Amino acid sequence: MRNFAALTALTLICAGCAAVPSGQPSAGVGVPGTASDMTDTRGLEGVLGSNEATLIRLFGKPRLDVVEPVGRKLQFIGAPCILDAYLYPDRQGREVVTHVDARRRDGAAVDRAACVAALQAK
Predict the structure, then answer these.
(1) Is 16 helix (H, G, I), strand (E, B) or coil?
(2) Cβ-count burial 68-80 (b if 16+ within 10 Å, e if not)
(3) Which of 5, 36, 54, 77 could form a disulfide with 50 if both were Cys (CB 3.0 to 4.6 A apart)?
(4) Are the C-beta atoms of 84 and 62 separated by less than 8 Å?
(5) CA atoms of 86 and 82, how far apart (whole Å)
(6) 3-class SS at 64?
(7) d(Cα 57, Cα 6) in Å, to the nearest integer?
(8) What is the mean pLDDT of residues 77-103?
(9) Looking at the predicted structure, is the pLDDT value of residue 36 above 70?
(10) What is the chain's Cα-based Rg?
(11) Domain regions of the chain by residue span
């Protein structure tokens, strides 16, 4: 059962890393994501590996809290972007952020680190 949970988590993480077509950049938020942007974690150090309490301190109350069988998604929204933080159990069983996605309200991908910075500045 543990291997199934790990495989499911890995599958969800990999699905979230798919390349997104480029669009027009959003003012103040950065350039839309590309495959290389999705693997770049610069600017995400304060988010990746953090728990729910840290995310709430950084961004406020989440707009959505989606509990899945293996993990959880917290969504934070602001004027410049929407940030989805995916939490999965670490080796000690604590839910921590393993992946984040960022997009504009129209669905176009934006730089994840720029979105994190913009949501913290609000």
Answers:
(1) helix
(2) eeebbbbebbbeb
(3) 54
(4) no
(5) 13
(6) strand
(7) 28
(8) 95
(9) no
(10) 14
(11) 2-21+30-121
